Amino acid sequence: MTTVVVKLGGAVAGDSADAILALAQRHRVCVVHGAGLQISAEMSRLAIPREFVEGNRVTSVEGLEVVRRCLAAVNADVCAALGKLAVPLFGDEISLRATPMPELGLVGEALPSRPQAVVDALAAGRIPVVSPLASGPLNVNADDAASALAIGLGAERLSFLTDVPGLLLGGAVARSIAASEAEHLLETGVLVGGIVPKLRAAIAAARGGVEAEIGTTAVVA
């Protein structure tokens, strides 16, 4: 049975259970989720300044507490929707690895990891649901964490389930894009918003030997 890593955006995390459970009938499935919308809303409520650098959230000690709370809430919602198969996991508690990025505060760049807790859950036929924190603890971009886990686990596929149908080029959804072309698009700055970290993560996965797809768009090495 093949292994698939599914990245859920916070906006769709609560509505993706049916798709994940259907996938789990044919594959071993590991879920990584974000909580970007929830984190931004909570930081606004608490009047904590929000700052991003190239799509990465600058994270202070106070901000990291908000990140953990929001990730915990989303993780609980996803696990409740998936039912008894779900195994809730926090990356910093299972040795998810990352390179510190001190210029962004308590933030790390995810490194390929093969946490034993994830391996054990998959072997038992369960669905690990991973919150993207790394040892430190460090805040890690969820797209990058999903890509790093997919590479570390030797997964066959990384699938981004998002609220957009795929990569929009020329007003239409691209069926596929080569990693080199995708990298060129990122360098030119024509892409903005949430698609940027997703595409970067998909490029890394594809070059790491993992089939990657954003919605219906395949990113190929």
Largest beta sheet: strand ordering: 5-8-2-1-11-15-16-14
Overall spatial form: globular
Level-2 CATH architecture: 3-Layer(aba) Sandwich
Report on the biggest sheet. Answer: 8 strands, mixed
Distance between the termini: 23 Å
Poorly predicted residue ranges: none
CATH superfamily: Acetylglutamate kinase-like
Helix content: 25-40%
Could you tell me the radius of gyration in angstroms?
16 Å
Structural class: alpha/beta
Total separate domains = 1
What is the residue-mean pLDDT, rounded to a whole number? 93
> What fraction of the residues are assigned to beta strands by DSSP?
25-35%
Description:
There is one protein chain. Helix content is 38%, strand content 26%. It has one domain (3-163): Carbamate kinase, CATH 3.40.1160.10. It is α/β, with parallel strands linked by helices. The chain has an eight-stranded mixed beta sheet, sandwiched between helices. A hairpin with a 2-residue loop joins strand 15 and strand 16 (217-220).
What's the short version?
This protein is of the alpha/beta class and 221 residues long. The chain has helices at residues 17-24, 36-45, 61-82, 116-123, 142-153, 179-188, 195-207; strands at 3-8, 28-33, 52-53, 56-57, 86-90, 98-100, 107-110, 127-131, 133-134, 138-140, 157-161, 168-169, 172-173, 176-178, 211-214, 217-220. The model has no long low-confidence stretch (mean pLDDT 93).
What keyword list fits this structure?
221 residues; four-stranded mixed sheet; alpha/beta; Carbamate kinase; 7 helices
List the topology elements.
Blueprint: E1 3-8, H1 17-24, E2 28-33, H2 36-45, E3 52-53, E4 56-57, H3 61-82, E5 86-90, E6 98-100, E7 107-110, H4 116-123, E8 127-131, E9 133-134, E10 138-140, H5 142-153, E11 157-161, E12 168-169, E13 172-173, E14 176-178, H6 179-188, H7 195-207, E15 211-214, E16 217-220
Parallel strand pairs: 1-2, 1-11, 2-8, 5-8, 7-10, 11-15, 14-16
Antiparallel strand pairs: 3-4, 6-7, 9-10, 12-13, 15-16
